## 1
Amino acid sequence: MNRKPIYVTQPQLPALEDFYPYLEQIWENKILTNGGPFHQQLEKALCEYLGVEHLALFSNGTLALVTALQALRVTGEVITTPYSFVATAHSLLWNGIKPVFVDVDPYTLNLDPQKIEAAITPQTTAIMPVHCYGRPCDVAAIQRIADNYNLKVIYDAAHAFGVRDASGSILRHGDLSVLSFHATKVFNTFEGGAIICPDAKTKQRIDHLKNFGFVDEVTVVAPGINGKMSEINAAFGMLQLRGVDEAIARRAEIDRAYRELLKDVPGIAPMGEGGEASANHSYFPILVGEDYPESRDALYARLKEAGVHGRRYFYPLISDFPMYRGLPSARRDNLPVAGDAAARVLCLPIYPQLALEDVERIAALIRAA
Ligand SMILES: *Cc1c(COP(=O)(O)O)cnc(C)c1O
C-alpha cells in the first residue's frame, strides 16, 4: 500500500479564497512594505492576542534575535543553551559575541539555572535561554541571577507562541523575547518573527534598527539591518490569527491521543507528562529509554521506512557544530544532560491536520518493536 509520507509538521494554511480580499487591499493601497497598514494591524492584533504591551514585527526570527542583542548593546560573552535550533547561537556570532554553553535541566531540557552562576565571568553581559518545545524556563530563578550579576535576559521564545504562566504571557519575562513565525511554527506568516519589549522607547529603537537605522528621511542613528516584515506576510498573519486557537486546540487533541496510546510502552516517555497546561503543543517529543528494545536512531529509521518522518530535535547539539565545538564550554563533559537528551529524543509528527488514525498508526509502529 502506498501512503503519503507524514512529516513532523505541515504548515497551517487557511483557504486560499479567504486570502484574496487581503491581496486586493494591498493592490489597492500600493503599500508593499515599510510599516504599512497590515504591518500596523498585525502588531496591534498580536499584542492583544498574546497579552503583551509592545511588539515589533520582523522578516524572520533570526534577524529579530540579532537585532534584540543590538537593541540592548549586548557584547562580550552570553550564556546560552546548546539544546536548541542553531539560530540561537548564530545570532550571537553575528554580533561578535562569544557563546558560553551551560547544561540543561533533565526534566524541561531548558537552561539549568543552578549551573548558570558557575559560567559567569567579568565578560558576561547577558543570558539567552530558550523555552524549548514551548515549555517555560524557570524564569524566576533566571531573573534572580540576572539581577544579582546585572545581566540582560533575552528569551528565544521561537517555540512559545501563546504560552502563558499563572499570571499571563510567558513573553513578558526578561528584557526582551523573540518569536519566530516560520512556516513550521504554531503561528506562521510563511517567514516572520517579532521582538516583544516592555516599553515604547525600546520598541522605537528596535524599529529604527530593523530599518537601516533610519529615524527620519535624513537621519541614520545606527548601522541597522533590513529586518522589516512585508505587507503580504503581515496580511497573511492577520488571516492566520483567526484560526490559531482552533489549530492549537487540534494540537492538544493529538497530544492527548499520543499520551493515551503510548502510556504503557516500556522505555517510551513522552516529555511533559503531567502536563504543563500552558504549553502550545508545538512539538511532541518522546525520550527513548534503555527499556525500549531499539535505540532512538533505530526507531527513527524504522519509522522513516514506514513513511513517518520524525525529527531528532535537537541533534546534533549546537555546541557540536564546527563553528562552536572549539569553545571550552562546548566540551561534552560540560553538557552531560544535553548530550544524553540529544541521543534519546525523537519529535513525533504533530500538526492540526494530522488525522487521529495516523496518530494511531504511528503509535502502533512504536509499540511494535
Ligand atoms: C525557528 C527557530 C529560530 C529561527 O527562526 P526563523 O524565523 O526560522 O529565523 C530560532 N530559534 C529557535 C529555537 C527556533 O526554533
Note: The chain has two domains: 16-103+110-241, 244-367.
## 2
Amino acid sequence: MEQHDLARRTLLKAGAAVGLAGLASVTVAGPAAAFGDPGGADEVLLWLDQPDPIPPGAVDIVAHLLKWEALDSWRTPNGEFFTVKHYNLPSLTAGSWRLDIDGLVEHPVSLSLAALRARPRREVDFTLECSGNHGLPFSIGAIGNANWAGTPLADVLRRARPRPNGVEVVFWGADQGAVTIRDDSGITGAGLTGTTTPDDTGGLDLTITEQFARSMTLADAMSPDNLLCYEMNGVALPPGHGYPLRLIAPGWYGVANVKWLSRIEVRDGRYAGRFMARDYVTIREEQDAGRTVWTFTNVSHARLKSAPAKVTRRGKHYVVHGAAWGAPISSVEVQIDGGSWRRAQLHRQRPLGGNGFSWAFWTWDWGTPAAGEHTVRSRAFDRQNQLQPPPEDPYLASRRTYWENNGQVTRRVLIP
Ligand SMILES: Nc1nc2c(c(=O)[nH]1)N[C@H]1C(S)=C(S)[C@@H](COP(=O)(O)O)O[C@H]1N2
Ligand SMILES: [Mo]
C-alpha cells in the first residue's frame, strides 16, 4: 500500500512534468492511425519515470523536446519539433542571404535562395536525433521526424568542381558565439595571442568567436541522400530549424545537419572546430591486451535505436506503442519486467517509397497485465540483423561521455 502511494506521488509529479498536473493518465479520442489503430477512445498512461526539467544552463540551447506520451503523428509537427542551437539565433532574410561555395574549387559559386529553389527538388523523410538524446537526465525527447525538401547537394558541389586536393567539405552556419579554450599546460600560455585571461592552473584561457561548423569528407558530402534543404513538412524552414537553408544529411546524427547554412568550403584536410573535435566527441576507455587505451571519435552516423513511447488502455486492455529508427528496421521486441522478449508489430516505416531514414512505429499487445508497477523495455533489429545493444554492452559501457547512447530504453509504468 505504502509503495503504491509512493508510486502515485511519483505519477502525479510525472503528470506535472508533462503539463498534465494531477493526472495519472490522459484520454485521447480518435484514431491513432500512425500506430495502425482502428480508432476509439484510448487512455494514455504517463510513465512514472519522467525526464528532469531542462536545467537553466541548457534552456537557451534545447527546446520543444518530444513528450513521448503525446507521440501520435508519424511526422512531427514543426511547432513541436525539438530544437538545439548552441549559439545565437541568426535572423536571416532571403533577400540578402546567399550560399557561397568556395575554397579548393575551380568554380566558386554564390547562390540565392531563389536559385536554389529553381534547381531540381527532392524530398526525404528523415528522423533527426540529437546524439545527446538519452544521454542526460533531461534529454530523452531530442528527436523528431519530418519531410525535408531541397535540392541535392552533390550536383551543386559538382558544379563548383572541387580540385584534386579538396578532400574535406566544411558546412558553415551563420551563428557564432564566444568560446573559451583552456590552456591547461600551466606554462603561462606561452604562444597564445588574442583575448586571454589567466586561469586557475597558472596558464591562460583563450577566448575566440567561433562560428558553428561541421565537416565531412568529400566522398560523404557527395552522397545522393544529402539535401540543401529549404522546406520542412511542406513549409519554408522555420527560423529555429535553419531558415533559409540547412544541410540535411539523412543517416547522420543531428549535429551534422548544419542550420542557417551560409558557406560550403572545400579544404585539403580535416576540419577540427569545436563541434568536430572538442564537443560531440565520444571518449571511450578501451581495454587492449590488459592495457587501457583511450579513444576519441567524433559523432557522425546515426545508430540503431528504439524506445517505448507510451502505454494506452482501452477498458482492461493495454497496448505498448513505440518507435524505432537509426537504420532500416526489420523487427522490434518488447520485454516486460525483465522477462522474455516478444515480437512487436511494425507500422508504416516507409510511406514514400522507402529509404529507411525515418522512424518506424510499432505496437505490442500487452493484454491485461497485473495491477502494480512494471518495466517496459524495447530493442530493435536492423535489416542486417544487428541488435540495438543493452546498456551493459561493452562498447556502450566503455563510453566516458554521454553522446551516442543507443542502448535499449526502459520505462516504468503503473497499472492501476
Ligand atoms: N548552425 C547550427 N546548426 C546546427 C546546430 C547549431 O547549434 N547551429 N545544432 C545542431 C544540433 S546539435 C542538432 S541536434 C540539430 C538540431 O536540429 P533542429 O534544431 O532542427 O531539431 O541541429 C544541428 N545543427
Ligand atoms: Mo545535437
Note: The pocket of MTE (ligand 1) is lined by residues 81-86, 128, 130, 173, 175, 212, 241, 254-255, 257-260 (CB under 6 Å).
